[in-house]
Amino acid sequence: MRILIIGGGGFIGQRLARELLKNPPAASRAVTHLQLADISFPAGKVEDQRIEYLSGDFSDSRFLEKVFQDAPDIVFHLAAIVSGEAEKNLDLGMKVNFDASLQLLELCRKKNIRPRIVFSSSCAVFGGDVTKVITDDTAPKPRSSYGTQKAMVELLINDYSRRKFIDGRTLRLPTIAIRPGKPNAATSSFISGIIREPLNGQPASYPVPATSRFWIQSPGRVIRNIIHAALLDESQLGDDRIINLPGLTVSVGEMIASLEKVAGKSVSDLIAYKPDEFLQRIVLTWPPDFDTARANKLGFVRDESVEEIIRAYIQEEGVNIS
Amino acid sequence: MRILIIGGGGFIGQRLARELLKNPPAASRAVTHLQLADISFPAGKVEDQRIEYLSGDFSDSRFLEKVFQDAPDIVFHLAAIVSGEAEKNLDLGMKVNFDASLQLLELCRKKNIRPRIVFSSSCAVFGGDVTKVITDDTAPKPRSSYGTQKAMVELLINDYSRRKFIDGRTLRLPTIAIRPGKPNAATSSFISGIIREPLNGQPASYPVPATSRFWIQSPGRVIRNIIHAALLDESQLGDDRIINLPGLTVSVGEMIASLEKVAGKSVSDLIAYKPDEFLQRIVLTWPPDFDTARANKLGFVRDESVEEIIRAYIQEEGVNIS
Prior knowledge:
The structure is a homodimer. Chain A has helices spanning 11-22, 61-67, 83-88, 90-111, 145-162, 189-199, 219-231, 252-263, 265-268, 277-283, 293-297, 306-316; strands spanning 2-6, 33-38, 51-55, 74-77, 116-122, 167-173, 175-176, 204-206, 213-217, 242-244, 248-251, 271-273. The first copy, chain A, is α/β, with parallel strands linked by helices. The first copy, chain A, has a domain at 2-174 and 217-244: Rossmann fold (3-Layer(aba) Sandwich). The longest helix of chain A is centred in the N-terminal third of the chain and has 22 residues, at 90-111. The radius of gyration of chain A is 19 Å and the shape is globular.
């Protein structure tokens, strides 16, 4: 089985690669070839003889054609310009988040190869009235260009699946917490930052009131859900390929309290409130309450608690708490 | 005030032009200049010294730039490849329904002119479970490439309005009935055909069971609603510019019965059932039941009955019924 990860140099891409090699998604078919395509790859990237690293710009059609020379059976499409950057640079966001995704679908259509495609969309497609519970039938009303671009690709994935050019599965990811490494340009970056930085002995801040609630999922669960999406039989999905993943609703205050419980007050005291109007204007339009009936029925999983998420992060990243 | 109608050669475009000249949308500002852009214009097109006809392809960027040389105050964007054709020719549908619409928005952004744009979308953005009532919060789940393309442009109109590049208003039009003239390539064409052709002494057929229900609106009401959309103050709309227009839910059988009541059995006897699988696969995924609370509150209007629609058509088109 040939697998391609677009955005394979990112944190989720690398972790997905590691997991796919360790536990092949289809028991009956070994992963013979794993291509990771991205602009750049991290130091200490996953090494394995089955892995081929392809450096290039996903929004460059020649690069994409090259990557597709050996038709993949499964494509994990994780590449994106994150929300903060897409809001500040509309052209770049459209080019990578929308145009390149369309190009990918068109390539499948023109080459007539119909791969299974797992597309990572985002709960940032929702916005506006944050008091309502989001269901599987709720209209995406993004309040960011990132969410707009993701919502448009979702529609294309559905249409190209309906027309049998691809076999798509769209996952709307909750905010991923806790991301290891450095802060990024995602408007949600602080949600990881307020746990990660203090555990590292560094100060951190949050730009929204502590009562603000968010819909989160741990990296471990996200990986499990992404692989689960690739394993679902098409007949379980029908024409609608969009799935709201089951997350956990937590307030910033609850996250800080959980951190204090796990790592002590000296750690949680490193966190301060620093209001930021640009970030508030986007992240406070994300509804935090979901009813993910469809995902639950299809076997997708959620985290149990913030404490569990923090403990998993400490273990996975080998954080030393005294 | 300068007004541009893209798709000004079509039936709705022509009728809108006539109405705008007769009853200018803003009482305080006369229509000084009315540009009608389209691929072609009908014989007997509206003539007036304020009208400028511009023949060209809306999806050709040079044509669009030319049209935009004199910045319009209001743009009515009615141009589209209709549903049946967009389903059969994906490239053409994408080019006109999506790419050209994006180009229009980009032109506004780059020229920094921020016109008011009324975009005619369609209730064909909905699809799938036809037993549910569609509300203002229901997710578009199109089951056609036409609906997909329209839904993507809706998202762009919202985003470009939010970013203040345009002042957009998206109307999801019910199926327009009764269209005068000839059948077209819309998958809904028969809904007008079963009334229009028999009134003309011609046979007509419908491709779906007579119990199939549709969401319709007369041309007269559509024109009133399109102009009403252009008059709404931005503050009444906020960030969500999408409006489901209030239609009328009717079955094919009810339409035939109303025709018989208005024009007699000899006329309605000209209608026959001719199943068509291609058409059924698309039109039977359109939900016929809507709760249009938002549109009602904003002052948009619906028709009272099919009988009223048929009588208005007979009067407007000067049909002779013996």
